[in-house]
Design brief:
By secondary structure, the protein is of the alpha/beta class. Helices cover about 35% and strands about 25% of the residues. The protein folds into 2 domains: about 240 residues, TIM Barrel, CATH 3.20.20.70; about 55 residues, no CATH class. Strands 9-10-8-7-6-5-4-1-11 form a 9-stranded mixed β-sheet, with helices on both faces. A 3-stranded antiparallel β-sheet has the order 12-13-14, with no helix packed on it. Helix 3 links the parallel strand 5 and strand 6. The structure holds S-adenosylmethionine and iron/sulfur cluster. The site of iron/sulfur cluster has 11 residues, from loops.
Amino acid sequence: MANSVYLHIPFCNNICSYCDFCKFYKNDEIINKYLDSLENEIDNDFLGEKLNTLYIGGGTPSCLNNNQLNKLFDITSRFIFNDNYEFTIECNIEDIDEEILELFKNNRVNRLSIGVQSFIKKNLNFLDRNKNIDIISRINLAKKYFDNINIDLIYALKNQSIKDLEKDIDIFLSLDLPHISCYSLIIEPHTKISNIKPINDKLDYDMFKLIDSKLKDYNHYEISNYSKKGYESKHNLTYWNNEEYYGFGLSASSYLNNIRYTNYRNLTKYNEKIYKKEKEILSLEDKMKYEYILKFRLKDGINIKDFNKKYNCNILDNKIIKELINEDKLLIENDNIIVNKKYIYVINEILVKLI
Ligand SMILES: C[S@@+](CC[C@H](N)C(=O)[O-])C[C@H]1O[C@@H](n2cnc3c(N)ncnc32)[C@H](O)[C@@H]1O
Ligand code: SF4
């Protein structure tokens, strides 16, 4: 039983210098075929549960033309929502105008996630994005239609100073938006910037701390995510809480009935209606590992009683958990085990130990 659905739209107006996601330049003929195949995949696999969350991500879903967006919303019209549902669509700055916002609004979308990455020209040039667009006025336009808006920001960029980052965060604060995701740049192989040198660890950490201190009025509820109270992303919390969900579309993953599936990344295959590639049947031990990897990203970490009940064990008997508590890397707070904020920046090292 899953009450969340992710749909992947792997097309973009433009390919950014750092991006390793599953995406292609948009092409009308291919997109039209893709939407048919997506609809078929949903018809085959979706069991009709009422949804708490629906998330359309990419790629860039907003790069679809009007007819294609109407087809996409025709597909999503089959989903029935519970009260207090969250329906997010990822939207790039260059696609925001009254027409698209109106279309989103009329099709039950109630949350926008806007890829901004930076407000500063130098950074945007480096990222190959949003050049010569008045980002702030586009966001102000989006605010006329939606109150629940996230923006994505990337930091740790080449030649970015602490002052540059401070300016980005100050602009975000001046926009008075309820949610921001801040990611440290990952230099991915096979991208245009694969050969650049990463910034040094100290600067990266200082940037992380700067963001944390400037966003002190926001709830830092996940390593990279900050929200005003009540605006935490319900959909992403499904993933971090290790709950089940459907994923449809190229490269999408699903977690259903104890099995994690990953779809093909090959667009030609997908458009021939060949979908699921990998299947990982989870043992009890695997499930516990996922719980560590996902829940320790959250400020609230793992609830001891819930974990013990779910896995019929005592988490505090785990040797590595004990060690990490002794090393002060994990803390027990009320009934929860959480990552000590001092060490959250090196959470990957902690997780590697645990799994
Ligand atoms: C799945 S991407 C797609 C969203 C949308 N197409 C866009 O570019 O705004 C979601 C977010 O991941 C982040 N991201 C993508 N590649 C990254 C990288 N190499 N390092 C850090 N963050 C990255 C960006 O902030 C991006 O907005
Ligand atoms: S970052 Fe977003 S817009 Fe840029 S290529 Fe990747 S998916 Fe497309």
